């Protein structure tokens, strides 16, 4: 992993973004913004899954009432997603949100931009400028086409409107649904500014599509030290986004979320139900916070060798498993007891 | 995407690997190598999913009989996975495999390496050298530790043993279960040789873990022009590997597998069952080979704009969808007819 890009740190309701702060995980509610009960329930699900910042759309004045209840209820910072109407941004800040996502170029006059910047500044709330490949200004599109350069130019335009009023607690996102364009846009903006970056691929699709696109784009950037907070977009249950986000941050080495499980794909040499054992161990360790490496391997010949640096592991034999630690075989376990005894050993670590 | 690295092309039973050949998709059977019926069934599943090369373990002499039946049966090239016993490699070549995966340093004397190289050479069959982080030679581990450099050094050692006998139809893989180490190892070997590279992350884990790790590592490499054939390892159903592999090659722009679907993650503005519609469209288009972009968006305000360059798409309203093409609204469709009419329009394209 390359050294992390320097970025100006902002404070989103106690969750620091940028600088040396851990790369945080965001999601967005897809519940009715006028329904507190369903929103509350989804907040619980997301927080329980490990979401650290939650965004919610604020489409009208009526939703500000629910928003107030939500900011009071939520244990994690709430971000208001505002389009076009600066009064909703002011209302959301009043309702206690910890960040506002708004593109100043879309809200009209300088006066309005100043009103939002001043209100956010007074409460120490950062603003995210969120440019998507589908919302680039016409004049920029004409000049650059729908390219990474256009995304960057659009973001810098919105940034300049905030800087005009000395507002600098800025986070930037420039998302495309195209992986290569997303990577290129973030690489360019990373050089052009020192603001914190919110990474994401827009309209990434359903689970597998999103896991793959988000992993390639965010993974490429994070391994090059770019990115301060991430959102994985899934057309599906928002909690799925958190599972993928955690896996990305863990795989790139940015964050640790409990045991790292390595397991082989099985092959014709495997004579145990490795897939079943593996899924069960994964489930049993879901809440474990130990920073260990657990290897679950199909065959006794390669097993211990393949996972020489695992803290503990299983290697399948015939109707039994070998329990091993750091490449050394400890003892044999009958297949039916494998999960139980592995978990017991992990508890002892 | 950067320009593709030059690599020496080999022919694996009609599927070209390296040079300007499309990056191919591999998987491996996890059926009993002595059971032709279950193996045959899994070959069908894999081929149907889009697998282009299938590997199978050859653990003993008895499995050579089944292997012969398999090579005769399979419509895609079969690769023999050999460990330690050079006679099994000779037997597999005799049984009609299209490639052998073997590490010459593990099979004993120079005579044996020469026997395998000559037999493969006589039939024009390439050999893959497959180094994993768990199988590095002791002397190399002592010198380099378990690092990317050790993987590269080990691979180059095995390569040198084949080159000694003028064998050059080589493919190399150097897989680690660590994403950063995998990327670094392939970057180094890509510079050190011009042999074709088989990309993969070893012991990548269950579905999500593997999708994420494989996407980061393979995606990072492919977008930099490195990689000629890929295998995604999943502890699970091998057909899942193909779904992820296709998504990776599609997202990086290496290959096209029919329509590209972009869909939003939904939010509080969404008033239709977008997730349901999206999953249904994905299913209905699974066998479609048209090179088009289909956008399925939750809201009527951003929908058409977000997908300006989509060939066709849906944007959700209240109880209805807008059908749009290239950012222009065509007509309204009641929610219950949305999937049907979208598919009809796609059929007309």
Q: Order of strands side by side in the largest beta sheet of chain A?
A: 3-4-5-6-7-8-9-10
- Computed CA radius of gyration of chain A, to the nearest angstrom: 23 Å
Query: What percentage of amino acids of chain A are in beta strands?
Result: 15-25%
CATH topology of the largest domain in chain A: TIM Barrel
Number of helices of chain A: 12
Oligomer: homodimer
- CATH H-level superfamily title of the largest domain in chain A: Dihydropteroate synthase-like
SSE order of chain A, one letter for each helix or strand: EEEHEHEHEHEHHEHEHEHEHEHEEEH
Given the C-alpha coordinates, what overall shape of chain A results?
elongated
Alpha-beta content class of chain A:
alpha/beta
How many strand segments of chain A?
A: 15
What's the story with the biggest beta sheet of chain A?
Answer: 8 strands, parallel, barrel
Number of domains of chain A: 2
Helix fraction bin of chain A: 40-55%
State the end-to-end distance of chain A: 28 Å
> What would CATH call the class of the largest domain in chain A?
Alpha Beta
At CATH level 2, the architecture of the largest domain in chain A is: Alpha-Beta Barrel
* Residue windows where pLDDT falls under 50 for at least 5 positions of chain A: none
Secondary-structure topology with pairs:
2 copies of one chain form a homodimer.
Chain A: E1 10-12, E2 15-17, E3 24-28, H1 36-49, E4 53-57, H2 62-73, E5 78-81, H3 86-94, E6 99-101, H4 110-123, E7 127-132, H5 138-144, H6 148-163, E8 170-175, H7 179-192, E9 196-199, H8 207-223, E10 229-231, H9 238-251, E11 260-263, H10 274-284, E12 293-297, H11 303-306, E13 312-316, E14 320-325, E15 328-334, H12 338-348
Parallel strand pairs in A: 3-4, 3-10, 4-5, 5-6, 6-7, 7-8, 8-9, 9-10, 11-12, 12-13
Antiparallel strand pairs in A: 1-2, 13-14, 14-15
Helix pairs in contact in A: 1-9, 3-4, 5-6, 6-7, 7-8, 8-9, 10-12
